[in-house]
Amino acid sequence: MTADRGLDVVDFHLHFRIGADETVHACEEAAGMHPGGAHEREVRAAGSAPYARQWRRAWSFPEPEPPAERWQDEADRWVDELRAARVRRAVFVTGGGNDALADVVDRHPDLLLGLAHHDPCSPDAAVELERAVTERGLRGLKLFAPLLRGPLDHEDLDPLWATAQRLGVPVLIHIGHYGSAGGLPVGRYGGPDELVRMARRFPELAVVVPHFGVQHVQELFFAAWGCPNISIDTSGSNQWVRWMPYRLTLEDLFRRAYETIGPHRIVFGSDSSWFPRGYVTRYLDDQLRVCHELGLPEDHLRAIFAGNAERLLGLTADRKETR
């Protein structure tokens, strides 16, 4: 138990070196996220830079620094951060490829976990997921729906979903705006309607959607109403609420999720991803504060901030064995 917060924390959503993740960059290029050449990219970056600066200033975040020369040093640095924040387990959802991330996890298996994050549109995606889970110990699959090159519910992806369902591992599917300022507002594929059709065809597949679904928050709530296998991950600053055409706050998001899908389908995540910012305790503390202000009972707090992630990742039995 954490001494300062009074409950265990399992963080379902972090990124290891996402800024330098070639597996993610390859999917971006294949999806046509960066049209034009170097000049066009520079123009877009310059136009979006003020929003990024405003966000960092508002949250008192420093400028990101380049990755460490050795991934081992960066992995150790994350572990120091997590221990200082009293986070019991943390899940990296990307990390430079399945084997690279599995090596990170193997370095600190008592604290770190990882998800496979290879190209879901590749012909051998299902085979690679099986290998990543059964041979390298990864605990699920992460994908960015805006980067898909075909529909989320297309039959070509059925073997991938069937494999995840058979293995009993969750699939974390980012829908909505991809990236922060200057990111991809919407993809050709991967919208909420495709998500629902896929989730209904594979009702035993645990599907988790991060960031409350971003601009698709309403559609996500309805999707979860119709598909009991859909859960919501709370990760990030959720600054996207500022861009909605109506007033929306973190408290509103938690209240609506709690009153509709309930506490056992809400999964805490921080979206911590770069240094020197490190582990974003402010996101954790803000979310916990909201839950306390809403009057959530202790067993529901334990579910949201640890128990649901443990169940999705198959950690419940592991924890009982270590008690």
From TrEMBL:
Source organism: Micromonospora humi
Domain Amidohydrolase-related: 82-315
Any one biological process term the GO annotation gives: secondary metabolic process
Domain of life the protein comes from: Bacteria
Gene3D superfamilies per record: Metal-dependent hydrolases
PANTHER family for the chain: 2-AMINO-3-CARBOXYLMUCONATE-6-SEMIALDEHYDE DECARBOXYLASE, ISO-OROTATE DECARBOXYLASE (EUROFUNG)
A Pfam family it matches: Amidohydro_2
GO CC terms: cytoplasm
Annotated keywords: Lyase
Name this protein carries in UniProt: Amidohydrolase-related domain-containing protein
